[in-house]
Design a protein that fits this description.
This protein is of the alpha/beta class and 354 residues long. The protein is 37% helix and 14% strand. Helix 4 packs parallel to helix 15 and helix 5 crosses helix 9.
């Protein structure tokens, strides 16, 4: 039985070679889709798919693809895949956990240091000749650049990236590092010199808040007009996670009105952000174009693991990242009833670490 895998996203390694070397599998590489209908048509006879953040892989897509067994998405997030539908239908929803932890934590630190040390403005001022010509501006820079030492740093979401950020920021001597994560354990946070607190304490006490939470129903707009009002007027907010965690309209108002001091965001609610979006016109907001997770190493390792998720699942091995583990129960029921989508595919569930 020859299996079929469709690649609908941009890749940077030989995913075709990786997947086809695993067994009797044919791979078709297509240009990334921008429309829903052709995307569904491309997947309708596929056993596996490598997908991007768009189009969304919703229930309608998976119901229209009766052979589909595994969907592997680039990066850590899987918010473009309907996990409940995938679980109900017996489809593995896979990601590549940890593949860009270093990059995102580094980017958040770089953003924070650029804000505190006023790197963009001072570089531009030097280029404009103001170092020699505008001593008053130089004095203003000297009086306003700042340090992390002695400040309270808050981390919203204490998973792999949140912990990596804690490791980095700890070296700069903050007074205190606190984190909010309802799924975290203080015994683990102790290893990083971090105290877990409730959200309201994080908002009220932090001089710097860095967001490293996934986007879920619970975190959608968790930073909004109300929560922004609980932050210090001198606070800095960083978001290198997902745009929809922050209410962007409320953030714009808070920055415009001086409710908080500064923001550095790598993600926006709608991407790419419109050139006319007022958030881009604020002097106290740095916006980078969703590149926190990228590096040549990431692109190589991500593509390889994304491809291996599919090849492993279709040949009886555990994928690198399974984001809907309850699907194992659905697949067991399907196998007991005759196989369903998984007929003829080796059972990989015994090799999973849960």
């Amino acid at each position: 039985m020859t299996l079929r895998v469709v690649v609908t996203c941009e890749t940077f390694v030989d995913v075709k070679g990786i997947i086809e070397s695993a067994g009797d599998i044919e791979v078709e590489i297509l240009d990334p889709f921008t429309e829903h209908e052709p995307y569904v048509e491309a997947l309708k006879d596929a056993d596996g798919a490598l997908v991007a953040t768009w189009p969304l892989t919703g229930r309608d897509v998976m119901e229209a693809c009766p052979k589909l067994k595994v969907v592997s998405r680039m990066g850590v997030g899987v918010d473009s895949i309907d996990l409940d539908a995938a679980t109900d239908l017996g489809v593995l929803a896979c990601n590549v956990p940890g593949v860009n932890t270093v990059e995102v934590a580094d980017h958040a630190m770089a953003m924070l240091l650029a804000i505190l040390r006023r790197i963009p403005e001072t570089v531009q001022a030097s280029r404009d000749g103001k170092w020699s010509d505008d001593p008053a501006l130089m004095r203003e820079f000297q009086e306003t650049v700042d340090r992390i030492g002695g400040k309270t740093v808050g981390i919203l979401g204490f998973g792999n990236i949140g912990r990596a950020f804690a490791q980095r920021v700890r070296g700069f001597g903050p007074k205190r590092i606190i984190a909010f994560d309802p799924y975290g354990y203080q015994s683990q946070a102790d290893l990083y010199g971090v105290q877990l607190v409730e959200l309201d304490e994080l908002l009220a006490e932090s001089d710097i808040i860095s967001i490293h939470s996934p986007h879920t129903a619970a975190t959608d707009h968790i930073i909004n007009a109300e929560t922004l009002s609980k932050m210090k007027s001198t606070a800095i907010l960083l978001n290198c996670a997902r745009g929809k965690i922050v209410d962007q309209v409320a953030l714009h108002a808070a920055l415009r009105d001086g409710q908080i001091a500064f923001a550095g965001i790598d993600v926006t609610e709608v991407e790419p952000v419109s050139a006319e979006d007022p958030i881009l016109g604020l002097d106290n907001c740095y916006v980078t174009p969703h590149l926190a997770g990228y590096s040549p190493t990431f692109l190589e390792e991500c593509g390889q693991k994304q491809a291996e998720n599919v090849s492993f699942a279709l040949t009886g091995r555990a994928p690198h990242g399974l984001t809907n583990p309850d699907v194992i129960k659905t697949i067991a029921v399907q196998r007991a009833a005759g196989g369903g989508r998984w007929e003829g595919i080796p059972d990989f569930s015994t090799s999973l670490p849960f």
